[in-house]
Structure formats: C-alpha cells, structure tokens
Amino acid sequence: MDPDDTSYDGYEEDAYYDDDYDDYNNYADVIGTDSNPNHFAGRSQKSCTILKDEDISQRQEADITRISTVLSISRNEASILLRVYGWSFSKVEDEWFGNEEEVRKAVGWLHDEVVTMDHTSEGRITCKICYDSSEEFTSLSCGHPFCNECWSRYFQVSIDDGPGCLMLRCSEPSCRVVVDQDVINLMVCDEYNDKYLRHLFRSYVGVSEAIKWCPAPGCKFAVEFDQYKSESFDVLCDCSYGFCWNCLEESHRPVNCETVRKWSIKNSDEAENVNWILANSKPCPKCRTPIEKNKGCMHMTCRLPCKYEFCWLCLGDWRDHKHYYSCNKYETGKKSGEYDEDEMKKEMAKKLVEKYAHYYERWAANESSRRKAIADLDKLQEKHLEKLSGIHLTPVTQLSFIIDAWLQIIEARRILKWTYAYGYYLPENEGAKKILFEHLQGDAESNLERLHHCVEDELQPFIAVEVTSQEFQDYCAKLKNMTSVTKNYFENLVSAFENDLADVECHGACTNVDAAG
Amino acid sequence: MANSNLPRRIIKETQRLLSEPAPGISASPSEDNMRYFNVMILGPTQSPYEGTFVQLLIGGVFKLELFLPEEYPMAAPKVRFLTKIYHPNIDKLGRICLDILKDKWSPALQIRTVLLSIQALLSAPNPDDPLSENIAKHWKTNEAEAVETAKEWTRLYASGA
Ligand SMILES: [Zn+2]
Ligand SMILES: [Zn+2]
Ligand SMILES: [Zn+2]
Ligand SMILES: [Zn+2]
Ligand SMILES: [Zn+2]
C-alpha cells in the first residue's frame, strides 16, 4: 500500500545511467499514487525524481570513476578535479586535455621537491601552526608537516565555515596542494565527516539546473526535475513538502509565482499598518497620544487625564467650532482644496487596508487550518487509526480513505488560501469575474468546511466508543463521498483559475451535482 | 578577562611581535584583552601614504585594530583601518580587501605576515580587485590625481596624533 518503499532502489540505479528521462517519468508515476497529498492536483505536477544522499553519492561516485578512468588519475584526484570544475565532465576534460600542466599547477599537484621535516635539536619537529612539538604529524603529498590536532581543528573550523572546506589546501601558505577527502576523513569525527559530506553533496546539486534542494527546513533531499525549462510547476518532495520549482515557495497552484511574490511582499510590508494608523488615528494636539477615530462624528475627546476635546478634521479646539458636527475650518479649507485631498487620501488608504485585511485574514485562516490538518493527520496515523481498526475489526489498510480525506483537506486548504491572494489582486472593474470567483470559491469552501467537520468532529465517536457496525459503515460511505465531491469542486476551482476565470460559465461549480447529500 | 587559556601560539606570536617588531609596524595587545591588538603601520616610502620629512618624519602613521577570533589561527584575524585612508582596496569603514584575510588564509600565516601584507598593499594598490568602486575608478581613469588625493588624505588624517 505504501508505494514509497516499492521498487525505489533498484529502479533508481537502472534509471540513473540512462539519459532517457522516461524512466524518471515512470518512476514518478509510481510514487504519484494515493498517499501523495498533491495527487489529485497532479495534472501540472510533472515528473520529478527525489534524490537522497545515497543517490547523490552514487552519482558522484560514478562521475569520479569516469574521470579517473578517462584521465588515468586516482579517484581522490578525480574527485578534486570535479569539484574544481563544478562536476562537469566536459570542463574537466577540456581543461585537462587542453593544458594538463596548468590544471596540475592549479590544484597543487606539481611540486619540485617534497619537503623534508626540520627536526629540533631533540629530534622533534615543531608544528608551524600551534608552535608545539607533538608526536603525531601528518602531511599531504608535498610533505609539509603539521600536527594532527591542528589539521583536525583546521578542518572543523573550515567545515563549520561552509563549502570552502571542499577546496582546502596545505596549511603551508605558499603550498597549493589540495586536501583530499581521505585526509579529512581520518582527522575529524563522524559528526564533521557527515557535515563535510553534506557540503560535498550540496556542491553537486548546485551545478545542475535540473536539480534543486528541497526548500523545506531540515529536509535533506534534492529534487531532480527534467522539465525545469518550462513554466512553474509544483513538485513534491518525499518529505511531503510540495513546492514550486520556479520560485521555491510552497506550492501555490492555481495562482502564479508573481502573485505569490507580490503577496508575500505585501504581507511583510509594514506600510499597510502605518497607513492604517494614519487613516484611523491622529495624535492629540495637546498631549500627542494617538487617538483612534471609531465613530462617525468629528468630535474627538482625548483619553484621561488629558481629556482635550478637538476636531478630527482640523485638530483645532472643539470649543471653537460653533456648529456642532461641522468644522468651519474644514469647510473653508475644502473650498481652497486644503483639507480635501488629504482627507481623501486617508479615506482611500483606509479602504485599501480594509480590503487587504479582509483577504489576508482568510488567507491566514486557511493556512493555519491547513497546518492544523497536517497535525491532525499525524495524530490519526500515529494512534487513532490503530484504535479504529481494533474497534471496528477493519484492517488499517481499508481505513486509508480517512487519510485520503485529510490529504484532500490539506490540499484544498492550500488552494483556497491562494485563491484569497488571487482575490485581492482581482481588478475592481472585473465585476463578472469577481462574481464568478466568489461563487466558485464559496461553493468549494462550504464543501470543504463540511468535509473538514465530518472528519474532524464526526469521526470522534467512532474512536471513543463502540457503535454498531452499520453506523460506522454509513459514516465511511459518507466520508468517501464527501471527499470525492470536495475533490471535484477543487479540481474545477483550480482549472477555472488556471483559465483565469474565462469560460467559467460552461464548467463551473454547477457541473458537480452535490452528490454528498 | 578573556586572557586565561590563551593558546601558546598567540603568546609566542605576541612576544615576538614585541621583541622583534617588523620594520614600520608596531602591534601591541590591549591590556584587558590579549586578543585585541592596537596596530600602527607606517606608510611605505615611495607610496602616497608615506610621511613627510621635515628634519624628522611627520605623519604617514596609520592606526589599525586587529582581533584574533576564537578560531584563530584556523580562521584569519580580523583587521580594520582606524585611520581614514584613500585606497582602492580599503573601504570607508576601514575594511581591507586582501586575499589572505579571506579564502587564501592559511593557519600557518601569522599576525606579522598579515600586517606585512597590508603594508605591501599600501605600496601596491590593486584597483582591479576593488573594495571602494569609486576610488578604484578614480585610480584607473586618472592615477596621478588619485595619488594626489591619497597624499592629501595622508596629510589630513594620518598624522599619528
Ligand atoms: Zn600543531
Ligand atoms: Zn604543502
Ligand atoms: Zn523535502
Ligand atoms: Zn512559484
Ligand atoms: Zn475643526
């Protein structure tokens, strides 16, 4: 039932050496089955291959073998050349056959003399880094000796510092000999060896346009995507994080990368809040406390202890205003265009902020709801599924439709979330589109709410207490049905959005008879 | 303060810096932090950074600060000019563009070698690898004028006071 574990390894090995990407496509189809959260949105989810450490290492090893055979050099040397030339065969070969001497010089493989160690009078050597004499010294092919402790510290500091550790040279300042992996292996502990390997893997992925690291925090997988030159696409990592190949943001289908970019800038933009303050509050002319306007009238009273009464429009003393609710200064100012523009700008800013707040609130609510759904799904898989299986004498595998329901919810929340970003940018003058948009969105949303309620709340009794099997059977049928109805609604929503709400009339929400009943 | 457990290497380097200073360079650790050095470099002769002789040498004294990070000598010291200087490889904040302070650092290099390299950089500005774009441009388009500015700045700021 879990396709992630089937035929992965053997398949991958065969596929790799084959330049024909069809193999990857088939492979991706294999994983693209039910437990794939984005499965139903799979139409634009193009084939991709997940590369784990072993896979990258395997590829690197294969490249190293190839270069070491072609150039008749050691594997260590081949590895260094590949790193220097960004894991490109053609570059390594061009450079090597173009001017082997130069290449050898660049990586420090040309040295006239091998250094012999200077011994102190007592027959010991002093390390040129720590100035101590120690028992254990190591040198690279050049013969420059440094104590093992210094090598080890040097490697650790460099590994912590970043990918520069892949191109370390002999500690003798004038010496160009590159440190090879074996020496590092010997000198540092497992923890640092692992870190070093991570840098090594990363260096491999950095050079190919078809491979990217999964941007999920803590995820160590790389994703290979053969259609990277096409438009943006959602890809799904084995860690279950779906992201956009193009902009590396979390999957945002059906809205495009540009909308996502604008939206996230908007969200981080404090200017909105500043505008809001501007539109809704003014400092008391006497004590400077910001006073918020929350009523229609212009008569403002500052907080205790100030209690200064002033006019919202002109900030003048309220007592000077002869006619209640009317500001003479404002009226005259309006005539001369003094206050008018200012006030209009503030009103506009306020409206814009209100609009943004409306969409943002819903965007954020769906996101947090999605996160909660992910957590709930985890909980279900961790314990509730077993329990249900025990109570209702049903194999866990036959309860997978509950997982499907949750996955559907998670994906639908994601889509719905992005429709709110879309909605915010939908031009005000596109009235018809807006109506359709809200109609589609509303239908999809209410279906989703029902499904969410059905699996979140209505399932509880079946976990907690014994009920008749008939009741449980009915529930199962209902949930399955609801899942598929919601799926349809969201598929329609997505395709409508992807057509930019053109021709929605023909296949809008109405094509789905509400079969859930 | 942070002076307990000072590695033998730092102690030795410091002793040697004090007992056999390199020509035109002085470096002495601060009293409360042995990893922090007050440095003075004399502008090299024949460079726009040299002082003027009026019976005795006046000016051309550049102050720097040098700090040995915890990782030293596995990581390079941090060095910065405190005296304003007009030089294509040194920026407004006194930061220095020098390969051995970055990717070409090797743990067998020393404070002494670093300071000698900085002194050499004053003799041979490298506008092709600039840190201050404007100064580098000036240097490339009108070297004579740029050198004049550098001399002017040396007079104005590098008095050693
Ligand atoms: Zn040592
Ligand atoms: Zn060496
Ligand atoms: Zn991942
Ligand atoms: Zn994108
Ligand atoms: Zn008024």
TrEMBL record, chain A:
Single GO BP term: protein ubiquitination
Gene Ontology MF terms in the entry: ubiquitin protein ligase activity; zinc ion binding
Reactions catalysed according to its record: [E2 ubiquitin-conjugating enzyme]-S-ubiquitinyl-L-cysteine + [acceptor protein]-L-lysine = [E2 ubiquitin-conjugating enzyme]-L-cysteine + [acceptor protein]-N(6)-ubiquitinyl-L-lysine
Leading EC class: transferase
Keyword annotations from UniProtKB, A to Z: Metal-binding, Repeat, Transferase, Ubl conjugation pathway, Zinc, Zinc-finger
Record InterPro entries: Ariadne (IPR045840), E3_UB_ligase_RBR (IPR031127), IBR_dom (IPR002867), Parkin-like_IBR (IPR054694), TRIAD_supradom (IPR044066), Znf_RING (IPR001841), Znf_RING/FYVE/PHD (IPR013083)
Pfam families in the cross-refs: Ariadne, IBR, IBR_2, zf-C3HC4_2
Pathway: Protein modification; protein ubiquitination
Cofactor requirement: Zn(2+)
Source organism, top-level taxon: Eukaryota
EC number: 2.3.2.31
Domain called RING-type: residue spans: 123-331, 127-169
CDD domains: BRcat_RBR_ANKIB1 (cd20346), Rcat_RBR_ARI7-like (cd22583)
This protein's record includes keyword Repeat: yes
Similarity annotation: Belongs to the RBR family. Ariadne subfamily.
Role of this protein: Might act as an E3 ubiquitin-protein ligase, or as part of E3 complex, which accepts ubiquitin from specific E2 ubiquitin-conjugating enzymes and then transfers it to substrates.
PANTHER family on file: RBR FAMILY RING FINGER AND IBR DOMAIN-CONTAINING (PTHR11685)
Protein's recorded name: RBR-type E3 ubiquitin transferase
UniProt source species: Dovyalis caffra
UniProtKB/TrEMBL annotation, chain B:
SUPFAM superfamilies according to UniProt: UBC-like
Record domain UBC core: where: 5-159
Keyword entries, A-Z: ATP-binding, Nucleotide-binding, Transferase, Ubl conjugation pathway
Stored Pfam families: UQ_con (PF00179)
Recorded GO MF terms: ATP binding; transferase activity
Residues the record marks as active site: C97
InterPro entries: UBC, UBQ-conjugating_AS, UBQ-conjugating_enzyme/RWD
Family classification: Belongs to the ubiquitin-conjugating enzyme family.
Name of the protein in question: UBC core domain-containing protein
Source species: Dovyalis caffra
